Amino acid sequence: MSKVIENPRSGCVLHGALQTVQEIKGAIPVVHANAGCGVINQLVDSKSTSVASGVSGVGIPGTVAQERHVIFGGASRLREQIKNTAKIINGELFVILNSCESAMVGDDVDAMTREIVEQGEPVVDTLGAGFNGNAYQGYENVLVDILKGIPGIKNVEEEKDTKLINIFGIVPYKDVYWQGNLEEIKRIFEAVGLKVNLFFGTFGGVQDLVDAYKASASIVFSRWGEAPAKFLNDKANIPVLNVDTLPVNVDEEEKLLRSVSQYAEVSEEDVDAFIEQERDYQNSFISQVVAARNKNDLSKRVVIIGDEEQSYRYAKILNDYFAAEVASIVIVDAKAKDELHERNNSDILNDLAEKVYYSQDKKEIEGIIKSSNAELILGSSLEKGLEEKLNIPLLEVSYPIYHSFILNRASVGTRGVLAFVENYESRIEKYEDAEKTSLISSFKSLKAEDKWIDISQRGIVSKDLSASRRKQLYN
Amino acid sequence: MSFLEERKALTREKRLMSLSHFNGNLEGLIDETSGTEIKQRIRTFTQIHRDETIAAFDVLSKIEDAFIIINGAIGCGSLGLAVDDDKSFNWIATDLNERDTILGGDDKLREAVERAYEEHHPKVIFIIGTPVVAINNDDINSVILELEDELGVSIISIYTDGFKSKTPVTGYDIVTHSLLKYVVKKEVTDRDDFINIISFSEGLQDVVEISKIFKALNIKFQVIPRFSSIEEIKKASLARASVVLNPEEGEYLAKELEEVFGVPYISSEAPIGFRGTKNFILKLANFLRIEDDAIAYIDEIENELTANFNNDLLTDKKIFVDAPLSKIPALTRYITNLGGEVVGFGSPFVDLENRKQLKRLDFLKNSVSTIIGNGQLFEKANEISKDQVDIFVTDFEGYEDLGHEGVVIVNLRKQTSYGFAGVDKLSKAFTKAIRVLENDKKIQKESIYKPSWKKRSGNWYVKQEVS
Predict the structure, then answer these.
(1) CA nearest B312: which of B277, B272, B340?
(2) Are residues A284 and A423 located together in one domain of the fold?
(3) Is the dihedral angle over the CA atoms B238, B243, B244, B248 positive or is it negative?
């Protein structure tokens, strides 16, 4: 039985779909819901990490369903809205996002979509209601639904491009470094002559969704990328390469490129040359990291709270670079039993951490941290209160991160991992510096009380001792 | 007649005929709203906007010893993530799934209330309603009745649903209704010597600024319901009088306190700009019979501020102001005093109460563009293009897209705009905006709106409602 959740952090299917569509250049979301459903997502995103690059905020078109639409149905209102959206807003693709209301009312959104597509407008719809799952499911649902609709509204080429690959599983916003991570993945693949369909951000766009059908493989970096990759496999016979996590070092980059070369046209020499160059780059920094590790105690006992893919990845980095001890991993996106996805990382995660939990409930997370004897928390801004309460430093790496502007900072690949390593080391140094300041201040306050004086080699004795006690001690 | 006799608050549309769809000019709006009825209109293209659930949550999340349960699907339950300024803020989401939408979510609600009580020991538990619960018609009251007795804590249902009103401030009315019905003390024996400052949406910086004025004039006060405690809300009926920072949001509470509990309401305009702030203080001082102190205080600050006031700061600048109608007279007057040209204004709604603000706009041309609606940035983009607006002043969030239309946005939410400090801060914000405007000319921007839309009349998608 599912339970209630204290301080839930994932959003719903609609929110995930909205975040996903907003970041596809040229795609315009049309929210078929009451006025506030999409705004909740906007309010939350505006407080964390980044600003949407496409249509955003209260600029998002929506049917703003009213009571009569709930009672009598909102399909005709939706028809009117789509028709006018296409007249007002520049878009290459309009994506209708359903909601709890439209699902409960039973609006025939598919019929509305078909009607407008017949008029030559590029419209697709996704049927997931908010109560059907979390934002990660929204990402996979909407991608599958868009890909399903693309052949009906765009010219899809049949012929495969042997150098083109699809990238799935990096969820916009939920991976707080999604823009930088996509860029780093692009850098790695392009270095060996491949082309990537990133779909999102600066280098993505609607054309990627069309080109997805002619890719030579789909690379899936998290469980949330499985469904769109599987869909393309079924529909267009595009092979799927499931990878445990995004690469965190040169060995993983090499493994990834060699695996991809089974499906796409990559020259061995190009891979060799790139890997050699990457290895030199990585090694030049490793010596600095080793020096920092010898200077400071960086081998901490940590708790990681975040998405499965990110937590897994951070645990590996902490092991590789700092020989850190991962006491617990708390996974906030997936469930312990997930019959909808093939991926089962439980063995690997259990190898990396002493304990693995699946929860996004604040009370449970607090209990896990308390019982872990951790020296450092890797989590989100929602753990800020616990940082203070438990006096364990927090490194904010997972969604949501408040008051931090993140553009193309990455946490994967040889470049991105270094940024993570910098943040990790700096956080520990700052915490230890603060501890030292606090120690000095408490020492000063002890001295100010003037109770302690060093009077002999026999130790320190309080000035306030009574004469009898003093005599007792010295005899 | 008090509205407290109703089981739940009426929507603004039902209570005050609020209109949230209009695009035209000031003269047209005055015509449209000056009769005994206000005719409803609709938009055939809309953009998403806040609703009453968000408004209710926003104010309740600032009451310090209360706990919020969001009764709905996990997306609505994520609303608490928007509270980024309080590390100690916690909330529970019932996380209703498909099964709960069929079989009802009362078990989860019960679990949520028990957890909230056992783990947080709040003085009051608020249950916020969402669309799923409203459509499903879940029986929330039986859970409340059962657990209130068992736990001995006040549990209050906030009857928001997200689709019955087009006016988000209905959320404040729903909160007001519940607070008056279930929290505010009913037995009023002795009056206390403090003033209720009623605030629903103001930022902390504005509330602090008004509090400083009260402190300077030696007036005891409490701020309710935003930034308050349950104890303070209980005492609201014992106050000597009430003032409201934004009348269209807080007047409902002030008037009910007056009617039901005999707490006088000192009606005034929003304390924005020289004149707005001065009027606010003088009305209060008049009630308390401390005019001499108030005048001395005003003179001292005003002299200092006027010395630095630049009457030409906004010369040649075209400005559009988007704010609640209660704030429009003060803001547009202030901008005019700085030499700026107000080419238009926008407000979320106009109703039988706040329409009086339109008469205070007699210093503006009758032809100024007037857009009534929540957000609806496409119409604002149209207006920006037509009138070549330089600076867009807004009191709302989520307007970042308009930056692509070639305007600089001055967001009132990001700085003090109330009181005398607001006069100075706003002037500084405009100075910065002019600097940014010059700088932004170098940055290439791409509008999301089609050029053909910007050439059309702004009221193209506003239609008369056919019932």
Answers:
(1) B340
(2) yes
(3) positive
- Within a domain: A131: yes
- Dihedrals phi, psi of A145, to nearest 5 degrees: -65, -40
**Among partner residues A36, A47, A90, which is closest to B50 by beta-carbon distance?**
A36
Amino acid at A139: Y
B152: left (phi over 0), alpha (psi -120 to 50) or beta: left
| B contacts of A73 (beta carbons < 8 Å) | none
Full strand arrangement of the beta sheet holding A123-126:
A27-31, A93-97, A123-126
**What is the rounded end-to-end Cα distance, in angstroms, of chain B?**
29
Last residue of a domain, one of A112, A138, A154: A154
Q: State residue B6's pLDDT score.
A: 82
Would you say B394 and B410 are in contact if contact means Cβ atoms under 8 Å apart? Answer: yes
Q: Give CA–CA dist A354/B218, Å, rounded.
A: 61
User: What confidence tier does A472 reach under pLDDT thresholds 50, 70, 90?
Assistant: low
Asked if residue A115 is part of any domain, the answer here is yes
pLDDT band of A471, cuts 50, 70, 90: low
Q: Whole domain around residue A134: which residue ranges?
A: 8-154
Q: How many domains does chain A have?
A: 2
Identify the segments of chain B with pLDDT beneath 70: 1, 444, 466-467
Q: How far is B108 from chain A (nearest CA, A)?
A: 6
| A134-152: average pLDDT | 97
Per-residue pLDDT of A68-124, as tens digits, reads 999 999 999 999 999 999 999 999 999 999 999 999 999 999 999 999 999 999 999
Tell me which chain A residue has its CA closest to the CA of residue B113. Answer: A4
Residue range A186-200: average pLDDT?
98
Q: How many angstroms separate the CA of residue A70 from the nearest CA in chain B? A: 8
CA distance B392 to B408: 6
Report d(CA B65, CA B441) in Å as an integer. 49
Residue-wise over A276-305: b if at least 16 C-beta within 10 A, else e?
eebbeebeebeeebeebeeeeebebbbbbb
| Total-model pTM | 0.94
Portion 107-166 of A in contact with B at CB < 8 A: 129-132, 134-135
Residue at which a domain ends, from A396, A412, A433: A433
Minimum distance, in Å, between the CA of residue B322 and any CA atom of chain A: 14
pLDDT single digits (tens) B75-106: 999 999 999 988 899 999 999 999 998 888 99
Domains and CATH numbers, chain B: 52-164 (3.40.50.1980), 195-303 (3.40.50.1980), 310-463 (3.40.50.1980)
CATH number at residue A12: 3.40.50.1980
Specify whether the CB–CB gap between A11 and B75 falls below 8 A: yes
Q: What ipTM, to 2 d.p.?
A: 0.95
